[in-house]
Amino acid sequence: MPVNEYGQMIGESMEGYTPGELPSIDFLEGRYARIEALSVEKHAEDLLAVYGSDTPREMWTYLFQEPVADMEELVRLLNQMLARKDRFYYAIVDKATGKALGTFSLMRIDQNNRVIEVGAVTFSPELRGTRIGTEAQYLLARYVFEDLNYRRYEWKCDALRLTKGKCPALNLPSRRAAERLGFIYEGTFRQAVIYKGRTRDTDWLSMIDKDWPKIKARLEIWLRPENFDKNGQQYKSLREL
C-alpha cells in the first residue's frame, strides 16, 4: 500500500482516471437469454403475465410496487419507468420463445466513482431458478465491468435480522441469489428506507472489478450446455464450482 510524505498509508493512485459513461444498451445476446432495452410497444403484452394480478402475491412483498390490474395500468407503469432519468430498465427475453419473462434495472449510478447498482429485479415464476435468469445477470455484470468499465457493482435487499440466534428470512431469496452470483455481503444499513408503510434495514452487497474475472469464469463454466440435461436442469450448481 502506498505511503505519503507523512508516513501515512493511503489508497492506490488513480492518476488518469475519468468518470464513467451512462449505460447505453440496445440488446445483449447470450446463449439462452437476450437483454433488450425496455419497450412498451415490444414488451407490454408479455410483461402483463409478469406484473399482472395473476402473479403470486408473495412475489411483491419486497418489491416497491404492487401488481397491476390490467394492460392500461401496466402501460402507465412502464411509461413511468421509462421516463426516469436515473434508471435504465431492461426486459429479459427467453431466446427459445422470444417471450419477455422479467425485467431489471441499472440504477443509483455514480459516474464520478464508477459505481452502479442492479435493482428492481422482477422475475416471473417462469424465470426464477432458470439458466435464462442467471445468464441475464451474467450479461449485465459483464456489460458493467467490460463495456462501461465500472469499478463497483451493487445489490441491495431487505436485511437478514439475527434475533436470539435465529435469522428471520426477510427477502432471503434475494440475498441468496446475490451471493450465488458472486456478490459479497458488506454490511447492513439500519432504517435505511421506508416503503409500503414499513421500515427497512438494507443489506448491501457488491462485486468489484478485481472480483470479476473469477466470477466471470465460474458463471461461464456453469452456463455451458453440457452442465444441463435435456430439460434444462443443472448437473452442477454454481455453489459446487
Description:
The protein is α+β, with helices and mostly antiparallel strands and 241 residues long. It has a single domain, classed as Gcn5-related N-acetyltransferase (GNAT) (Aminopeptidase). It is 27% helix and 27% strand. The chain has 5 helices and 8 strands; from the N terminus they run ββααβββαβαββα. The protein has an 8-stranded mixed sheet, sandwiched between helices. A hairpin with a 3-residue loop joins β1 and β2. The protein is globular, with a radius of gyration of 19 Å.
Q: Any chance you could write out the topology, listing elements then pairs?
A:
Elements lengths: L26 E3 L3 E5 L2 H12 L19 H13 L4 E7 L4 E12 L4 E9 L7 H17 L4 E7 L13 H10 L2 E12 L2 E11 L3 H12 L18
Parallel strand pairs: 5-6
Antiparallel strand pairs: 1-2, 2-3, 3-4, 4-5, 6-8, 7-8
Helix pairs in contact: 1-2, 3-5
In short:
Helices cover 27% and strands 27% of the residues. The protein has 241 residues and is of the alpha+beta class.
CATH class: Alpha Beta
What integer is the average pLDDT? 94
Largest sheet: 8 strands, mixed
Based on DSSP secondary structure assignment, what is the total number of beta strands? 8
